[in-house]
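Please fill in the sequence for the structure shown.

STRUCTURE ENCODING:
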């Protein structure tokens, strides 16, 4: 592969694809420089400024917001960010530590949970595990509030073993029961400002500006079971943090994490030797994520034929790259950074349509289907989801839609002279690799709906691009990254 092709591969897997300008930027850094910038993203600017409180829709001075609004806000971050791995990792952890607004129907609690994941995304898994476990949204989701001495609730104890650290089969029911006793007393409470937020946005703004949590962890020691417990062979008057430590020391934990990381960034069903090697790297680095991420990106397997353009795109990997490639952020950025008065969601420049498109394709951010998160790989592709993916052309290339003006303008400015050139240009913009016969089908579609002449006319350009993208989106190869 050329350096450009290698950089594009990195950006597909460690980000959300990239525009041509982004690929050119990273190409100058080279492969190692690109890995460094992606993984150590906190050293670099976001590329946009955002004041969430000012974005909140209001009516007559009263905040009107729901979890879906926060999902659109997160979608906007994915489109605008110049630190793509930050959001890609946050999405990974959202699936790993799955919490759904279907139950946690408080938009501020859900956004604080996402912020918790983002804050520790490329840091240390030990720290992240504790932070996620004590996050109020997680505790609400898994009923930690009702886990008290004498009447333990096993929900969190079960999921922290099965889904967060060890995997099924590496613990017993007794381990769960004993761990539940250790976690008794964990709870959360709300900042008083959150209760006044809808009627008094200034109170919320003051709390956010001062960096105070809207919800916080509380250790209710009087409701903790102080008795002896035994979890995975370790005994004593164990408390919640002790159990997390026990889980992290088990050899199954880095192996479980290694498998999930590999399937997210590289390919499904990895060989055991690969899982063992990555698990060894995780253990050696004491759960620091950056060395593990770099190890993945520099492994031979990451650059192998088995990996490159072989992973089925999830809805975020399908929709967000197209928004970035067609410069949708050009419309969204000024509205996000300087929202109009009483924007009521319009501050996102139509990115609500992007959020809804992902939801129709099976991934509604902040709404994973259950405690295990989403199913990956081939589960993303069905007759209904493919229909929705093809229909996504109506969002990207429809002159009547809020995002539909940029694609036609981009093709227009390219100065293409033939349908074949227009097809080549679209494949370059969308980072698509399809067989020659499908490329010919794109050119034929352009000819059938008016040719390059129609592409040059504002009145007809949107329709030409729309029809052509539908043909492209119908190509099976387009759904691999």
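FILLED IN BY: designer on duty
SEQUENCE:
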């Amino acid at each position: 592969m050329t350096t450009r092709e290698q950089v594009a591969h990195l950006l597909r897997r460690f980000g959300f694809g990239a525009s041509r300008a982004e690929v050119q930027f990273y190409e100058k850094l080279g492969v190692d420089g690109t890995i460094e910038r992606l993984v150590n993203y906190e050293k670099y600017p976001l590329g946009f400024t955002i004041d969430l409180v000012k974005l909140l829709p209001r009516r007559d001075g009263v905040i009107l917001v729901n979890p879906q609004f926060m999902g659109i806000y997160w979608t906007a971050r994915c489109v605008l960010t110049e630190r793509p791995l930050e959001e890609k990792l946050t999405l990974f952890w959202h699936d790993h530590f799955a919490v759904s607004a279907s139950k946690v129907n408080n938009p501020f609690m859900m956004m604080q949970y996402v912020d918790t994941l983002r804050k520790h995304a490329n840091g240390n898994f030990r720290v992240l595990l504790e932070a996620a476990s004590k996050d109020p949204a997680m505790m609400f989701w898994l009923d930690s509030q009702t886990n008290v001495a004498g009447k333990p609730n096993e929900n969190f104890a079960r999921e922290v073993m099965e889904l967060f650290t060890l995997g099924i089969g590496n613990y017993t029911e007794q381990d769960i029961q004993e761990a539940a006793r250790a976690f008794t007393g964990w709870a959360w409470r709300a900042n008083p400002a959150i209760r006044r937020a809808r009627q008094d946005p200034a109170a919320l703004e003051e709390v956010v500006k001062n960096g105070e949590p809207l919800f916080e962890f509380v250790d209710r020691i009087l409701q903790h079971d102080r008795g002896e417990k035994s979890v995975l062979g370790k005994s004593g008057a164990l408390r919640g943090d002790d159990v997390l430590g026990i889980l992290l020391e088990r050899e199954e934990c880095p192996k479980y994490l290694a498998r999930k990381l590999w399937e997210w960034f590289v390919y499904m069903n990895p060989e055991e030797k690969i899982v063992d090697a990555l698990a060894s790297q995780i253990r050696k680095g004491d759960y620091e994520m950056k060395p593990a991420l770099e190890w993945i990106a520099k492994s031979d397997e990451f650059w192998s034929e088995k990996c490159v353009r072989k992973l089925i795109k999830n809805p975020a990997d399908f929709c967000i790259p197209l928004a970035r490639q067609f410069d949708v952020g050009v419309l969204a950025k000024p509205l996000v950074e300087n929202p109009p008065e009483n924007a009521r969601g319009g501050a996102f420049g139509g990115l609500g349509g992007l959020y809804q498109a992902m939801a129709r394709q099976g991934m509604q951010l902040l709404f994973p289907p259950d405690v295990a998160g989403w199913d990956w790989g081939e589960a993303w592709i069905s007759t209904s989801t493919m229909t929705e993916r093809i229909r996504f052309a109506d969002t990207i290339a429809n002159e009547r839609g809020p995002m539909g003006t940029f694609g036609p303008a981009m093709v227009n400015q390219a100065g293409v002279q033939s349908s074949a050139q227009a097809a080549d240009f679209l494949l370059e913009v969308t980072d698509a690799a399809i067989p020659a016969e499908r490329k010919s089908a794109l050119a034929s579609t352009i000819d059938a709906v008016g040719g390059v002449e129609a592409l040059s006319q504002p009145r007809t350009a949107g329709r030409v691009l729309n029809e052509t993208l539908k043909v492209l989106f119908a190509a099976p190869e387009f759904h691999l990254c």
